């Protein structure tokens, strides 16, 4: 039996189940919010983009301090608390909707509060994985985690769209709440983490060290820059898509959920194909396929302005999922492989702040462009962004890597 065929430890399997439930809850919540805004309240592309910006703002504000906390506290407990916070906000959203007391502002504020839990989970999880498996199984563990995330991305938007159309938003929000509670329960089953040497360094100094490590690393720096530009372009699209699909493409709630779910289908396909691709491609080739796939997808999406058909949008979302998931698996392993263990929390938070922090900037940019020049202009802006992220990665030394490097 090869190392890659060795079964993952039980705690990793619990983490994988928790990840699926947590991502499922997040995707249900993220999909139902713009559906409520557009189909129940008649919001346009600019308003849904501002809603998206508010719901992603915690990534920009909290990733760095939560990364420091993940280095000092129990990561599994931090993630458990994060899911309980998200479950509480989802339950409150469902109750407010059933009482006809929910507003666009309330939807945005509670979504932002729930996203605080998402930030904590996202920062702590990459730092927890190397504590559960050895270096030889890092890529295998990351692949399983990304596969579960992909499944959640595939089914979450579809369930949200069908639930909105057939039973109302409260059903989807209630299901998301239950999934967050299950994710927290799985984390509670993990064995206690090994005690870490207490750090007496000041938090600001730790943050500076993390930023300096990323910016000074020949592989992490271009990976982070590529991801920043990708996320700006992606959230320009995410902010306007539901309004664009409802107006320009004339799609129903279920059809919108289906197209968003195809993104997850692409991720599942990419995650399943990743081991076969890894046997045939260099490590740098795995990393490069994400930006290239996203650029092709953006061109297809922009083509729907001239030819408003589902047959352009559907393959675009599949490509948006398939290539970037291979990128995510590879670059997560790269980050874990080249970063000293005592810096993983800080480095993860720096990269998360830069990449996920770009999300509200992208959504806000999409809102401004859609308001001033229309949704079509925002779609063409996406193409420019995805072309730029491909160019950054293509010129970097990461593309030339043959194998996964290790920390010296």
UniProtKB/TrEMBL annotation:
Keyword presence, Transit peptide: no
Transmembrane regions: 20-43, 49-71, 78-97, 109-133, 145-164, 223-244, 250-274, 281-303, 309-330, 350-369, 375-394
Keywords per UniProt: Cell membrane, Membrane, Transmembrane, Transmembrane helix, Transport
Record's GO cellular component terms: plasma membrane
Superkingdom in the source lineage: Bacteria
InterPro entries found in the cross-reference section: MFS_trans_sf, TM_effector
Topology term for the membrane: Multi-pass membrane protein
Localization annotation: Cell membrane
Protein name per Swiss-Prot or TrEMBL: MFS transporter
Organism from which the protein derives: Bordetella genomosp. 5
């Amino acid at each position: 039996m090869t190392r890659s065929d060795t079964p993952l430890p039980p705690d990793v399997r619990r983490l994988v189940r928790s990840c699926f439930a947590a991502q499922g809850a997040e995707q249900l919540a993220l999909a139902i919010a713009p559906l409520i805004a557009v189909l129940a309240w008649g919001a346009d592309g600019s308003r849904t983009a501002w809603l998206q910006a508010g719901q992603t703002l915690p990534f920009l504000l909290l990733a760095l301090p939560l990364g420091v906390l993940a280095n000092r506290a129990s990561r599994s407990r931090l993630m458990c608390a994060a899911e309980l916070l998200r479950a509480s906000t989802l339950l409150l959203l469902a109750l407010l909707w059933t009482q006809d007391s929910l507003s666009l502002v309330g939807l945005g504020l509670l979504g932002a509060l729930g996203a605080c839990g998402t930030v904590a989970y996202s920062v702590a999880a990459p730092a927890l994985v190397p504590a559960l498996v050895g270096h030889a199984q890092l890529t295998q563990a990351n692949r399983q985690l990304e596969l579960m995330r992909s499944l959640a991305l595939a089914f979450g938007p579809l369930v949200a769209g069908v639930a909105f159309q057939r039973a109302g938003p409260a059903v989807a929000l209630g299901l998301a709440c239950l999934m967050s509670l299950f994710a927290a329960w799985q984390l509670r089953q993990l064995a206690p983490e090994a005690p870490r040497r207490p750090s007496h360094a000041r938090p600001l100094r730790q943050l500076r060290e993390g930023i300096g490590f990323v910016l000074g690393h020949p592989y992490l720096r271009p990976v982070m820059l590529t991801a920043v530009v990708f996320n700006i372009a992606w959230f320009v699209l995410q902010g306007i898509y539901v309004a664009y699909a409802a107006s320009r493409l004339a799609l129903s709630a279920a059809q919108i959920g289906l197209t968003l779910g195809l993104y997850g289908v692409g991720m599942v396909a990419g995650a399943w194909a990743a081991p076969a691709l890894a046997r045939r491609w260099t490590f740098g080739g795995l990393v490069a396929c994400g930006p290239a796939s996203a650029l092709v997808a953006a061109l297809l999406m922009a083509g729907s302005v001239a030819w408003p058909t589902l047959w352009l949008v559907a393959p675009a979302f599949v490509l948006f999922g398939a290539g970037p998931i291979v990128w995510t698996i590879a670059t997560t392993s790269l980050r874990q492989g080249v970063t000293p263990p005592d810096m993983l929390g800080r480095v993860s938070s720096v990269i998360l702040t830069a990449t996920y922090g770009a999300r509200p900037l992208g959504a806000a940019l999409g809102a401004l462009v859609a308001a001033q020049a229309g949704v079509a202009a925002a779609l063409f802006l996406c193409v420019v962004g995805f072309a730029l992220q491909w160019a950054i990665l293509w010129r970097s030394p990461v593309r030339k890597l043959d194998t996964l490097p290790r920390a010296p």
